[in-house]
Amino acid sequence: MSKAAAQDYLPPPDCPRCPRLAGFRHRNRTCFPQFFNAPVPSFGGLDARLLIVGLAPGLKGANQTGRPFTGDYAGELLYGALRRLGLASGDYKARPDDGLTLNGVRISNAVRCVPPENKPLPDEINACRAFLVAEIAAMPNLAAILTLGQIAHQSVVTALKLKRKDHAFAHGAQYRTGNLALVASYHCSRYNTNTGVLTTAMFESALDAAKKAAGL
Asked: Per-residue pLDDT tens for 152-185?
C-alpha cells in the first residue's frame, strides 16, 4: 500500500476537521499530559476479514491508552468475548503493550477523537467518515463488519452508500451487500450492560454471527 493511501485512513495527530473535538483534545493535553490525546488509530491488520466499528474513544479509555476499547469497561467485554471466540490471543491487561493480538479482526471507531461526554455531534460523525470509507477500501479481505451501537451502524451504512431505511439498526440484525456482511450489536458499554439492554450472551451471539459471516 502506498504512503498516500495510508494517509487517507489515518487522521493526523492534530486533525483540524472538527473544531470542537480539536479544542477538547488540546485541553486534555493540558489536563492529562500523560494521555495519548490524539485521533486513535485502529487496532489489527488491514488484511483482517472482520472489521468492528465502535462509536468513539473514551476519555480515560482509548484516549488515554491510544488503542481502541483499551482501558475501560467496554474493552473488558469486547476483548474478553474476542478471546473466548478465538478472535484474539493473549491476555487483555487494559494497556497497548499487553501483548494481545487479534486473529483476523481489526477494530476501529466511527469517530477517531474523544468527544466531550462521549457524544459526537452529527457534523463530527460526518467529517470523520472519510477515514472510515478509506479504511474499508484499504481492506482487501474484508468480508464482514460488526457495528457497535446505532451511531456507528448508521455511519457504516452511509460509508457503504446504502440506504438507512433498508438497513435499520437493531441488535442482531444482519444484512448483506455484495460480498460484504453487516451485523449490528448494541454497544458493549457499561451503561448498556448495567441496565440490562445488553448481556454478555447477547453480545457474544452477535460477535459469533459476525465471525461466521467473515468466514473465521
From this structure: 999 999 999 999 999 999 999 999 999 999 999 9
Using alpha carbons, list the distances in angstroms from residue 50 to 41, 89, 106, 114, 216: 16, 16, 6, 24, 8
Contacts of 66 (CB under 8 A, 6+ apart): 36, 38, 40, 41, 96
Contact 95, 70 (CB under 8 A): yes
- DSSP 8-state assignment for residue 124: H
Q: Say if strands 144-148 and 50-54 run parallel, antiparallel, or are unpaired.
A: parallel
The reported pTM is 0.96
Assigned fold of 41-214 = Uracil-DNA Glycosylase, subunit E (3.40.470)
What angle do helix axes 122-137 and 150-159 make, rounded to 10 degrees? 60
* pLDDT tens digits, one per residue of 37-66: 999 999 999 999 999 999 999 999 999 999
Determine contact, residues 144/53, Cβ cutoff 8 Å. Answer: no
